[in-house]
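STRUCTURE:
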């Protein structure tokens, strides 16, 4: 008689791992230093935003950063006709700012065709003598006036940012990268047409409030700010653009029954304390800047 087959003994499911809650108490005080390990002697460092004693040297660095930022936008396909602008305060005359000329493709912008804008919104003789975008002046001048802490403002009509903006909602904090925007993202829930009146620029600045560094402009696009460098605003912009794409993909999957999980506020705040630092953001974007210099360095002169 053949032996009877026995049912295998049930195997207990492993207990779920406890949710680890981290804190900053035992970590480096510098957010950038938390992101890398050097040697024991402490002589290997990752550099943050460079500092300048000479405002004229800083001006040249700022203009190169601005040209790199635009060429990166060109590489990413953000160009959209006459739309899109980045402004950065001039280190020599801080009530003036540098800006791209209207009608020049992002990929073709160099330090030589950047325009210096005076406080009254007109082209200054010290920069390129080219026209500038009217809507850009209305938006950026209001932001620079309302936020003296901000050096840079960046706005254009990127594909996924435009698509998500039609919902008039923020993105969900669903991934580590999204923690860049934890308590750091506004939504301007209005669209009054192309921005040709100063009141609309003031409304956008008010929506950002005193501390947020990014905004979704309903039915319009994205806007980001930088405190220390053009790289900061450009990195925040490309991150928000990609996260809008992630959000659209997730919403499509969720519509078919998959449940999305967002990061809780405590974990998001812990991650944001490192990711949102201007020096960490600069270091995150530096590989893209170095690659562009390698590929097209002659175009920045």
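SEQUENCE:
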């Amino acid at each position: 008689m053949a032996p009877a087959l026995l049912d295998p003994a049930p195997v207990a499911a492993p207990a779920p791992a406890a949710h680890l809650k981290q804190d900053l108490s035992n970590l480096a005080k510098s957010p950038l230093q938390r992101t890398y390990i050097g040697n024991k002697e402490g002589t290997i460092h990752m550099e943050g935003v460079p500092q300048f004693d000479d405002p004229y040297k800083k001006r040249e660095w700022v203009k190169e950063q601005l040209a790199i930022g635009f060429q990166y936008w060109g590489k990413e396909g953000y160009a959209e006709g006459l739309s899109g602008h980045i402004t950065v305060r001039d280190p020599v005359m801080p009530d003036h700012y540098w800006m791209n000329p209207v009608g020049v493709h992002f990929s073709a912008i160099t330090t030589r065709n950047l325009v210096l804008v005076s406080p009254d919104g007109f082209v200054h003789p010290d920069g390129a003598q080219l026209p500038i975008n009217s809507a850009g002046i209305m938006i950026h001048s209001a932001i620079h006036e309302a936020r003296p802490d901000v050096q840079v403002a960046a706005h254009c009509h990127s594909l996924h940012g435009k698509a998500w903006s039609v919902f008039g909602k923020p993105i969900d904090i669903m991934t580590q990268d999204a923690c860049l925007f934890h308590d750091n993202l506004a939504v301007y829930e209005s669209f009054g047409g192309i921005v040709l009146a100063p009141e609309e620029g003031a409304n956008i600045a008010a929506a950002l409030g005193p501390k947020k560094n990014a905004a979704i402009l309903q039915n319009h696009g994205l806007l980001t700010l930088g405190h220390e460098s053009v790289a900061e605003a450009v990195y925040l912009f490309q991150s928000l653009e990609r996260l809008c794409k992630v959000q659209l993909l997730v919403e499509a999957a969720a519509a078919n029954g998959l449940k999305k999980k967002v990061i809780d506020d405590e974990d998001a705040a812990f991650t944001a304390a490192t990711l949102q630092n201007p020096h960490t953001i600069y270091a995150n974007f530096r590989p893209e800047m170095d690659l562009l210099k390698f590929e097209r360095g002659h175009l920045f002169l």
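REMARK: The chain has one domain: 55-300.
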